[in-house]
From TrEMBL:
Cofactor(s) essential for the protein: FAD
Tree of life domain: Bacteria
Keyword hit for Oxidoreductase: yes
Annotated organism of origin: Geomicrobium sediminis
Lineage: Bacteria, Bacillati, Bacillota, Bacilli, Bacillales
Name of this chain's protein: Tricarballylate dehydrogenase
Keywords annotated in UniProt: FAD, Flavoprotein, Oxidoreductase
UniProt keyword annotation of Flavoprotein present: yes
Domain FAD-dependent oxidoreductase 2 FAD-binding: 9-473
InterPro entries per the UniProt record, alphabetical: FAD-dep_OxRdtase_2_FAD-bd (IPR003953), FAD-oxidoreductase_2 (IPR050315), FAD/NAD-bd_sf (IPR036188), Succ_DH/fumarate_Rdtase_cat_sf (IPR027477)
Length: 500
């Protein structure tokens, strides 16, 4: 096998936020770093390139955000109503939505290091702005909700552009169109990476490898094997390159698989969205996230979830999965004119599929659902709506009574024309199953011992998310464990270099 002309202290496999966080972290510690990117240069960036940039952190209170936001002026802060959200609130959210299954040590790393990591990202040129989708105007105030008030400037595109610029400034090498295929080990320590480039295999010598190349969401075969046959035709919301290569390599090298391999981050997405992420139209423009304000019915005109069970940040990952279970894997989000002005910007885009009608009967016909069943669903729902104050910036308790499934918050009658129906299906974003790491991002073998020189970050970290996850935690986890893995790898390389 051909050997690459240069060896490295650290090789990072992957090309998204986690990978470049790791690469830059190791490089600033003085390491010689190579990033191995499976995609071409014009299709780089992994899933991170497609995200809308929302990133969850333990900011504390409004004062904690003053040095984070780049787009708010001093006078703007007088209009901001910002709930407290510290490490405890973040940790509790993770444990709540995963039903207490998240590995405590990993959850504590994520929550405790989230804010410091944001500041570190800023120091390398990543810019953060107000997440306009996380507040409602109320009494001339920006009333924030859901613990997710920050996003990256220009979404995932801006995030990755900043990382690429900084990596270039620091002298991080990058190989494109290069797929990692196997790890080289000697005495339970990593000594190289075998890659495939232009149909040829070659070995790159290294002292350590950081695996940050995503889950298996883009592999139809693995989706069906681990999550279920119904996932065969799920829309892939990000890159086509996340096919589980890193997981395969790690497990072959002795890593322990762990976590919820049967679950994933799924989201309701436009029924006519591209079947795989379109690099010409990134930015997460096809998702449909305002459903707590409306109703959701399936292709038979029947509701199947409690749209208002919680803020969307805590339900969209599991409601996407519920949509996949419906006939033809299709559903409709419904809104009347009362709530139409409150919808997120993606509902206004030209790419958004929508039918509009001036009566419920006409809406049913345009949706091509059974009219009588649909009208029964709406009339039964309307009759169950209870009185109360409506406030989309809090869980207002304005609910239904005697309805199954209930609508627990934000229940308004659906009766003001015109009416809108947005057809949606399930889009898969990333998988939850991964490999076992400790609180230093070291990959562990079957005896809970670190495999020397092997680390993981991003989607590959198993044991953190089960069944569900708090929105914005994927990007944050990628950055936190990316930064940590780079630091830990650098310490390891220094130790083995000294011994040599």
């Amino acid at each position: 096998m051909e050997s690459y002309s240069k060896s490295y202290d650290v090789i990072v496999v992957g090309g998204g936020n986690a990978a470049f966080s790791a690469a830059i972290s190791a490089r600033e510690k003085g390491m010689g770093v190579l990033v191995v990117e499976k995609g071409s240069q014009d299709k780089r960036g992994g899933n991170s390139y497609f995200t809308d940039g929302a990133i969850r952190m333990a900011y504390g209170d409004l004062e904690g955000l003053r040095s984070v936001y780049s787009d708010l002026k001093d006078e703007d802060y007088d209009r901001v109503d910002m709930p407290v959200y510290g490490e405890k609130e973040y940790y509790d959210d993770i444990m709540r939505v995963t039903n207490g299954k998240s590995e405590p040590a990993l959850a504590k790393v994520l929550t405790s290091q989230s804010y410091p990591t944001i500041k570190w990202m800023q120091s390398h040129g990543v810019e953060f702005i107000v997440n306009e989708n996380q507040y409602f105007e109320k009494d001339n105030k920006m009333s924030f909700w859901g613990g997710l008030p920050v996003k990256t400037y220009q979404k995932g595109i801006g995030l990755m552009t900043a990382w690429w610029k900084r990596a270039d400034e620091l002298g991080v090498d990058v190989l494109y169109n290069t797929k990692g295929t196997s790890l080289v080990k000697s005495d339970n320590a990593i000594t190289g990476l075998v890659v495939e480039q232009d149909g040829k295999e070659m070995q790159i010598d290294t002292k350590s490898v950081i695996l940050a190349c995503g889950g298996f969401e883009a592999s139809e075969q693995k989706r069906m094997k681990y999550i279920g046959d119904e996932w065969k035709n799920a829309v892939v919301r990000g890159t086509e390159h996340n096919t589980g290569d890193g997981l395969d390599m790690a497990i072959e090298a002795g890593a322990t698989p762990i976590g919820d391999w049967s679950a994933c981050h799924a989201h309701t997405t436009d029924y006519n969205a591209p079947r795989v992420g379109d690099f010409e139209k990134p930015g997460d423009i096809y998702k449909k996230s305002s459903y707590p304000l409306g109703l959701i019915v399936n292709n038979e005109g029947v509701r199947f979830v409690d749209e208002g069970a919680d803020f969307r940040n805590y339900t969209y990952a599991k409601y996407g999965k519920e949509t996949l279970k419906q006939p033809e894997q299709k559903a409709f989000q419904l809104y009347d004119q009362k709530v139409r002005p409150l919808l997120r910007v993606e509902y206004e885009l030209e790419e958004a599929s929508v039918v509009k009608a001036d009566s419920l009967e006409e809406l049913a016909e345009k949706m091509n659902v059974p009219k009588e069943k649909f009208l029964e669903t709406i009339h039964t729902y309307n009759a169950s709506v209870q009185e109360g104050d409506y406030d989309p910036s809090v869980k207002d308790g304005k609910s239904t009574k005697g309805l199954t499934p209930a609508k627990s918050n934000w229940a308004l009658t659906f009766d003001e024309a015109p009416f809108y129906a947005y057809p949606v299906t399930c889009g898969i974003t990333f998988t939850f199953g991964g490999i076992k790491v400790n609180d230093q991002a070291e990959v562990l073998d079957s005896e809970e011992q670190p495999i020397g020189g092997l680390y993981a970050a991003g989607e590959m970290v198993g044991g953190l998310f089960y069944e569900n996850y708090p929105g914005g935690s994927g990007l944050m986890s990628g950055a936190v464990f990316g930064k940590l893995s780079g630091e830990t790898a650098a310490t390891y390389v220094e130790s083995v270099t000294t011994k040599a």
